Amino acid sequence: MRSPRALANDLSSVAGKAPPIAEETDVLVIGAGVSGVAAALTAARAGARVMLIDENPVDFKSMAEEIPLHFGGRMSASLQNRNAALERVLEANPSLAEAFEAGIEVRLGTACFGLFPKHASAAWMEVPAAGLVDADHAYLVRYKQVIVAAGRRDMGLAFEGWQLPGVMGAHAAHRLSVLYDALDAKRAVLVGSDNQALEIANVLAVRNVQIEAIVEQAGEVRGSSEMLERLEARGTRFYPGHVVAKAQGDLQGVTRLVLVKVDAQGRHMPGGTVELACDTVLLGVAAIPAIELLEAAGCCVRYEAARGGHVPRLDEFQRTSVEGVHAVGDCAGIWDSKNGGDEIPAREGRIAANAALRALGREVASHDEAVLPPEPTRDSAASRLAWVSASVLNATADPLVCQCEEVNAADILNLRPPRYVPLPEPRPNVAPSNPQHSALCASPDLVKRLTRAGMGGCQGRRCREQVGALLALGSGRELCKVPHATYRAPVRPLPLSQLAALPESPAMDEHWDSWFGMPSQWIPFWRVPPTYTVANRGEDEAARE
Amino acid sequence: MSGKDRCGAEVIIVGGGVTGLSAGWWLAREGIDTLVLEAGPIGWGASGRNGGGCTHHHSPLFQEEQRLWPQMDALLGYPTEFRADRVRIARTEHQFKLYRRALENGLTQGFHTDVLDPKQVRELVPYAGDDIHGGYYYHFGGHANPHRTVQAYAWAFADHGGRLVEHTPALSFKTLGDRVIGVLTNRGTFVCDQLVIAAGPSTGRLAAQLGINVPMRCARAEMIVTEPLPLMKIGGVDGNGLYGRQTLRGNLAYGGGPHEWVDLYEPHEARAHSTILQASLARRLAELLPKASHARVIRSWAGFIENTPDGRPIIDRAENPLNVVVATLSSVGFGLSPASGRAVRDLVVDRICSFAQLSTLGLARFAALEPDWAAMQGWLPVAAAAGR
Questions:
Q1: Ordered DSSP codes for B186-219
Q2: Does B377 sit within 8 Å of A19, measured CB to CB?
Q3: Using the beta-carbon criterion (under 8 Å), do B280 and A10 form an inter-chain contact?
Q4: Do A526 and B164 lie within an 8 Å CB cutoff?
Q5: CA distance from start to end of chain B
Q6: Phi, psi of B215, rounded to the nearest 5 degrees
Q7: ipTM of the predicted structure?
């Protein structure tokens, strides 16, 4: 028999099983937009090893599955030629050439599916690492500092027929048109009229997309009237006090949109419909900071109206609550004056890079003033709630809020199990009898558990903000008081086969057990000895799980 | 003391996980005034997210587990998504030998298992591959949806008049003589006649405040979930070092592999982070079901879970104080919950379990446990283990 001391390693635990990591960088920058490139150049020019990744060109299949943006199937077929897409991305973003020249390791078509910093209760990885994935394979890169510039996505908004091809995010359309020159849209209707949406509409208009109409639930334009006028001069009609009642079309997508007039409470007014011919609907209700990578990495996140929604809590150096993780650009907050040009995102990038450099022990002089958003002039939360109220809650057709899992607003508010669940006989009240347990006090995570809203293949990208808004509306809570649903890696859907190919330490396989690897746990009760001590514990291998 | 006092109950259960909620439901359905205090939202720990397996053939609660699961939807009045039977696939002779234990334990207790050759496995499991050593079809056990089951317990408990108070951690206890008379929380004191501590990883720390030694350590474990795939005939398919199932929705939800010992004072307040272990899980799932290896992983889960020194549950009455029942299921609580809740009910009401012999789940077995048992077993956080 072995002595107790010899038992002092738990071979079934993670200890000593850290995976081999082939690549290493001082500063990893995720996202090659304005802020990411500024961060990468600043760090590289100070002598740090920098890796800059950007997920564009996104592969066609992911785009078709609405990852990472709601592309609505409006990618032109040219995008299936990956080399052409790559060339196009390089052409559209001249700053990438500058990054190459500065000696930065630039990887395009490369997404980060997870950041794995060390945490007190997740320490076995030994070093912080990022999980990256390109068209062919997934791999790990060790980083010392990471700057996340993951950008934004569009808030989804349900109405009857919004699952048709051609209904897409406004920013997704912008990305397809400007970055890829591959937007398959001729006549579009924009839903929403804040500055972000109007700016996109103006860009698309000069790129040969006829903006037929702009629909706004509020009684007036939310963004700049000057931007609206520019569109109106091109023939765009503006429909304040309207929402989309339904989109109609065929397999190719939307052909017609029916608008309905709403009153100040968002109630549909009888007879107040407008019909529009179009092939594309641009959802521009709200631009959402893309925080999934940061939140999943454990960064503290909160709703900040001035930053346009849920964002990581940042200090004046763009540092998040997790050591070595910084956020810049749209994922650090979206507001009008920041949106207007490159100055603020670039400054955020430089500030974060300098903070990263200091953390690496380099002396850097920084003259940039910290970036702080101004007090918001408009209540973006109220606008989101008004949209969801008018378009989703008050809709006669009960549109699906979560397309992947087919969940509508009533299901969410009543915590109704999904339709595939056979209910026992006699059929119970699925809405619980105790009002304390209704969705009115529920969190989005509870909604996910019980209704599956947000649990589908698009990873909640299209329904997340709508669910939050529905819970706020249902309970009378302020939107900022409704907790956000958590994110988990992989934040990009990843085939088992790709994830499976990541190398692991030999010890991982040698001592793999399906549970804790404790023989005593599985001894049948009729053979269990009356007392347990470590000294007399059995080492019966056959009793492992 | 009035049992219907809104600031207390005849029985207070500390812990709104699957064990505490089941116990609460068993008590409430007899009209016993019961209150469940939960530190966070109910079922937020490993109760709501786990492999969903209901096949604990080694446990004294097995017979009752098997008897109850097929009735649970009807008894609770809410769906649990329970599905009977389980298939386990062995890719190696070693696995084939390990998985035979269920056959033997089942047989001893009157449950049947078919041994499957590779061809039979492939017929039952369309996503299985070519490198199969063999398999088993257990005509017992099965799986249910943890999220839905936790909520079903909670709603059924409330339907019977049980009261549930969430986001209210027990801070300490008020005792009088040999009895606990109240639970102190940030919302005031809740008085009780009987106390059940079923607080998962916090059970040891809470029990210690009453002088009850419940040895346990907490670890972090992980799972992965894929997008939905067309349904297999049997959802309860695992093996190759993994536990898990195809959910009724079609997702593959699997876990297994190494755990990380952690040292947390308040596990419910800490976030359990997913790590790159998800890649090792994906590797083994792709080996288990190679024809599903194109399926995309869309999320992962990590959680904190407790284990006693021998990994077996503790369901016992403390010697002192006289009115306390301790229940920790030591990381295998979900499937056993219909039976464990009933056992707790029996210990609270009748002082003895009416349907199973619980001696192997008693506190007394640890009477001679070494004080440094955790270190001796290597159950230390990574940093501490590295520093040895």
A1: TTEEEEEEEEEE--GGGHHHHHHTTT-----EEE
A2: no
A3: no
A4: no
A5: 53
A6: -70, 130
A7: 0.95
Q: Which residues of A touch B262 (CB under 8 A)?
A: 120-121
Q: Which residues of B touch A542 (CB under 8 A)?
A: 97-98, 101
Task: List the A210-216 sheet strands across, edge first.
Answer: A167-169, A280-283, A187-191, A210-216, A237-240
Find, among B313, B315, B326, the residue nearest to B194 by Cα: B326
| Token digits of residue B6 | 């809104």
Q: Which residues sit opposite B326 in a β-bridge?
A: B197, B316
Distances (CA, A) of A167 to A162, A194, A200, A223, B99: 6, 18, 15, 22, 50
Which CA distances in Å does A416 have to A451, A460, B24, B212?
A: 6, 18, 23, 42
Encoded tokens for B287 = 């080996």
Q: Do A500 and B300 touch (CB under 8 A)?
A: no
Q: How many residues does chain A have?
A: 545
Q: Output the tens digit of pLDDT for each of chain B's 388 residues.
A: 444 446 899 999 999 999 999 999 999 999 999 999 999 889 988 898 899 999 999 999 999 999 999 999 999 999 999 999 999 999 999 999 999 999 999 999 999 999 999 999 999 999 999 999 999 999 999 999 999 999 999 999 999 999 999 889 999 999 999 999 999 999 999 999 999 999 999 999 999 999 999 999 999 999 999 999 999 999 999 999 999 999 999 999 999 999 999 998 777 778 999 999 999 999 999 999 999 999 999 999 999 999 999 999 999 999 999 999 999 999 999 999 999 999 999 999 999 999 999 999 999 999 999 999 999 999 999 876 655 4
How far CA B174 is from CA of A76, A87, A317, B117, B205, in Å, comes to: 70, 72, 48, 60, 16
How many angstroms separate the CA atoms of B47 and B66, rounded? 19
Residue of B nearest to A298 (CA): B273
Across the interface, of A5, A417, A533, the residue whose CB is closest to B148 is: A417
Q: Does A505 touch chain B (CB under 8 A)?
A: no
Contact flag B261-A10 (C-beta cutoff 8 Å) = yes
Q: How far apart are CA A373 and CA A332, in angstroms?
A: 10
Strand B170-176 to strand B163-165: parallel, antiparallel, or no bridges (unpaired)? unpaired
Interchain pair A542, B368: CB under 8 A? no
Tokens representing residue B302 in the block: 């990590």
CB-CB under 8 Å, B298 with A499: no
Closest CA to A183 of A81, A72, A102: A72
DSSP assigned state of A242: E
DSSP β-bridge partners for residue B170: B185
Task: Kindly list the residues from chain A whose CB atom is less than 8 angstroms away from the CB atom of residue B257.
Answer: 508, 512-514
What 3-state DSSP class applies to B370? coil
Q: Which residue of B has its CA nearest to A442?
A: B41
What is the DSSP code string of A430-486? SS-SSGGGSGGG--HHHHHHHH-TT-STTTTTTTHHHHHHHHHHHHT--GGGSPPPP
B381: nearest Cα among B238, B218, B170: B218
**Are residues B369 and A508, on separate chains, in Cβ contact within 8 Å?**
no
Residue of B49, B71, B273 to mutate for A, most A C-beta atoms under 10 A: B273
A355 closest CA partner among A338, A368, A345, A373: A368
Tokens at residue B218, please? Answer: 């907490």
- The gap from C-alpha A256 to its chain's centroid, in whole angstroms, comes to 29
Q: Nearest by CB to A495, from B57, B147, B293: name it.
A: B293
A476 touches A486 (CB < 8 A): no
- Interfacial A residues in 108-137 facing B (CB < 8 Å): 114, 116, 119-125, 129, 131
Minimum-distance CB partner of A500 among B73, B74, B279: B279
Q: Distance (Å, rounded) from C-alpha B39 to C-alpha B166?
A: 6
